Amino acid sequence: MSVVVLTERLIQSIFPSMKIEDVIKQNESKTLEFKQNIDAKARLLATVIAFSNTAGGKLIIGVDDKTHNIVGIKDPHSIEEKLANLISDSIEPKVVPNIEIIPWRDTYVIVLEVYPGASRPYYLKNRTIDTSTYIRVGSTNRLADRSLINSIKRSLLIKTFDEEALHEVNYEEIDFRVASEYFEPFTALKTSDYYSLDLLVKENASIYPSVGGILLFGKNRLKHFPDSWIQAACFDGRDKSRIVDHQDIKVNLIDSVDHAINFIRKHLFIGMPISSIRNVESWSVPKIAIREALINSIVHADYSVNGAPIRISIFDDRIEIENPGLLAIGITIEDIIAGISKIRNRVITRVFHKLRLIEHWGSGVQRIIASCQELGLKTPKFEEIGNRFRVILYKEKVKPILLDSVESKIIEAIRTKGALSTKEIAMHVGFTTRNVRNRLIKMIEKKQIVEIAKNANDPKKKYDIG
Questions:
Q1: Is residue 297 predicted with pLDDT exceeding 50?
Q2: How far is the C-alpha of 453 from the C-alpha of 463, rounded, in Å?
Q3: How far apart are CA 362 and CA 350, in angstroms?
């Protein structure tokens, strides 16, 4: 069997419909990291632990993490054995990754694939859980604090946090009159509904309110969950140096959606088309995107984490909406963009759905993106930062990428033929190799294309669309 065939088969087994060249074009992320070698063992172990505790991931060894040049490794079988032994001897509970050796030109790359662990949290054997439990936040490994460790443990339970019973609270803490009023337009709440919605929990002969019951309809919600409110602020400029207006929204979580939207409306440009027969407002940022982001922040907030409420920050160029808690274990930003979600708070989500605040489960992020793109705005950004999840809705319109005739020919050649060398590109566009090389350098700087090579002087380097 030829090396080329072997390479393709191995790549397909690890990256379906993807070549190693496509992998190195990607940036490091929650599920991808590059390492030139395995010398920095502590960092390597932290990455394996973080992948196991979060959403899994692939560690590519033999690739420079700064340039993404494929530097390769020597004696890959020896490195493979050292990796397996290091991970087995150092991490508790045991982590069993998949390790593959991939030939590339005259060298090798090792791909270590780590799966989300079923026995999390994972940590170092020679240290305690509190001092060596790592999670993955963006492209970095972060030491988990006690609240995050508890969230990791809770992710293995059948019940979500808001389904748990609050044993120290009397069930009469739930305001049944208020709950009935919210449901009145849709149905008349019966006693049995409080149990089917998990607002009440029956254990043996005792009745308790659930966490979700108190969060939604508790008479003293903020006493039990002091951070379950929305902090809204508008700033002058693009940073937080000068505040223009602020509001603490501490009403019922259901009503807080409209209160927050009204605050944002005050500080957005709201137009009225002249040709409109009806009074239809035109928002500079789509109202549907704002509403979906707000609802998502409420139903996906981690209310077990103390420290800060849901926050809305309005700037000249963007709106930021963030909630406490990272994405649910096993979920990535790519997943939520694709419409894959994992419910963090089943009680809150169930009630919001019954009240028709949520229409189609798992499609909120896609509606946010689509509504902004329809208005010609820059694509919203979703990110994990600290121990919070943030949605950024931009006010600015997308500026089209302008290509001159030569750049267009280069892009079209690569799109048609795949990764090409400088000489191959020169033949396609009818320029000298020197002129094309200078043009390619500028296109790399503008992030129009990427370079695939062992190093800067690699005679076999190729260029591809980033």
A1: yes
A2: 9
A3: 13
